[in-house]
Amino acid sequence: MKLVRSWLRTARHTAELLQKAVPSPLIQQAAWLEKKPVRIDHFGPDPGRLNMLVYPPSSRQDKTPCPLLILLHGCGQNAEAFAAASGWIALAERLNAPLILPVQSRANHPAGCFHWFRPEDIGSNGREAISILSMIHHACTTYPVDPRRIYIAGLSAGAAMAASMLATYPDVFARGMLFAGLPTNVVNTPAGALALMKKGLPSCTHEYLEVCARALAPSSVTRWPRVSIWHGLADRAVSPLNAGLLARQFLSLHRLSHDMQAEMLPQQAARPEGISWQRDGETLVSLHLVPGLGHALPVDQPLLAASDPYVQSVTGVHAADHAAAFWNV
């Protein structure tokens, strides 16, 4: 009996140690929701009057070159809650990478939207674009960032701004993930932006989409970033037609041939793997249309989705895992 009691005590003690050493997924998710970023007040030129939040690498002692992640929130979102709910904090921790959150000021826009369509805020002379680039430069001089692995993602207005950053600074970014986004630089007024969100651009040519993006870029571009485009087929805020426009825009930039018809997109892209366009075996553009997903980023962890109205639980679709696979990290 003594031997049995001793064994039970040892087993209980071992179980307690294992529970502490390997937290349950629910405990880990709760910890990510509670983690707080560092605010950087002086990060360089800031003509866009944005705020910079950063989650530093989990191990500051490790000087191994690491990726840099940038996540742009959408209208009405809390940047910190979005970073946690989307799984981007967990992804950054897994990669031991810094995560930058550019934050729109309510003084700039009452709903906290990035000005993704205004000529004065996008492009190489754009105020908000310069502010975001300053944050990236600050992170690259503060942490051991591998300049070949800078990845940007965004949702809605954040995705539209991320698309403009990819077009404006193609030599800075390796890849981007765009959720519920819009093609870049095709409208320049609030009325035009609203019409684009609701209806897309009827009868828009590939040439026009490409010219609009190239107008933001340097005169000589040696390469374009790779992009993964995601959109919910149940999105009522931004028409899924914009996902096709965005894909066509980057396909044209990459000089990838395609014969994409808007009416066929749901049948083509509403699959777990989506549609991908490759060159030499490497995916340069991918498009994923998610049935049942509204104006949101998809995750397969309900606890995370419950903490942000623009993050939606979708069984088997976890955006951060797809990001890790697409970024090859």
Account of the protein in words:
- It is globular, with a radius of gyration of 21 Å.
- With 329 residues, the protein is an alpha/beta fold.
- It is built from 12 helices and 11 strands.
- It has one domain: Rossmann fold, CATH 3.40.50.
- α2 runs antiparallel to α3 and α8 packs across α9.
- α6 links the parallel β5 and β6.
- The N terminus is likely disordered.
- One of its GO terms (molecular function) is poly(3-hydroxybutyrate) depolymerase activity.
- Distinct helical segment count: 12
Strand order of the largest sheet: 1-2-4-3-5-6-7-9-8
**CATH fold field value:** Rossmann fold
Q: How many structural domains?
A: 1
Listing every helix as H and every strand as E from the N terminus to the C terminus, the arrangement reads HHEEEHHEHEHEHHEHHEEEHEH
SSE topology:
Blueprint lengths: L1 H20 L3 H10 L3 E3 L10 E5 L10 E7 L6 H7 L2 H8 L3 E5 L23 H16 L2 E11 L1 H12 L6 E5 L10 H10 L6 H9 L11 E7 L8 H13 L11 H5 L5 E5 L2 E9 L6 E3 L2 H4 L5 E3 L5 H8 L3
Attribute tags:
alpha/beta, nine-stranded mixed beta sheet
